[in-house]
Amino acid sequence: MARPAYRGDTPTAVTKLKDAFWQLLGEMNYSHITVKKLAGVAGVNPNTFYYHFATMDDLAKAALEEVQLSELPPLLMSRFLTGTFPPGALPDPGLLEERWQKIRLFLRSDSTVLQRHVYDLLERYWLAAIGVSKETLSREEYLDLTFLLNGAVAVIRQQDREYDLGFLQTLPERPLGKGILQTLDDLTKKYNKA
Predict the structure, then answer these.
(1) pTM of the full predicted structure?
(2) What gap in Å lies between CA 175 and CA 14, rounded to an integer?
């Protein structure tokens, strides 16, 4: 049987599945989310899930990609290195809150797979912001970046429901922040020729 044509005036099946995924992840452990539950909440046939995704992990990865974290490393680097955010660069506070909550759902889940998805995505975006591939970094540079990213992930995981921008705003003045800044600045100067 052919797939029904999309009409354009309703959410797509993929959108419904992703929305249902976020809803269920907020209500239960990732390990308890089944295709049947997901399809029921999304209002689609379970076969629709398999038409678009091979596994629940594939859906999770696709949902996380839409959280739009790619702009955050360059923004944070600008803040840390220049002392200010570029004018108009900060996302809408409501959007920032939504992103924060979704990242926290992944990091606080019972799944190391979801936690790893966040780490891998952050690593990819930070490497892009620095302008280098993982393979190009020396072993020490890569371990430094790994240390920084794991620290960021741990801080996000430990935050309460409300994110604390004050922590980020005061980080550059504290000794830890100065070390982070120096590391990022050194890597950027060495590898980012743009």
Answers:
(1) 0.79
(2) 45
Q: Which residue has the tokens 């920032």?
A: 96
Residue 165: in which H helix or E strand, if any?
Answer: helix 165-170
Given this model, what pLDDT does residue 146 score?
A: 95
The secondary structure of residue 95, as a DSSP letter, is: H
Write the DSSP string, 119-131: HHHHHHHHHHHHT
For helices 112-130 and 72-82, the axis angle rounded to 10 degrees is 50
Q: Which amino acid is at 119?
A: Y
Q: How far from each other are the two terminal CA atoms of the chain, in whole angstroms?
A: 51
Instruction: Quote the CA–CA distance of 100 and 72 in Å, as a whole number.
Output: 11
Confidence of residue 138 (pLDDT cuts 50, 70, 90): very high
Contacts of 26 (CB under 8 A, 6+ apart): 105
What distance in Å separates the CA atoms of residue 46 and residue 42, rounded to the nearest whole number?
10
- Per the CB < 8 A criterion, the answer to whether 27 and 40 are in contact is no
Q: Mention every residue, 6+ apart, whose C-beta is less than 8 A from residue 50.
A: 35
CA atoms of 116 and 97, how far apart (whole Å): 21
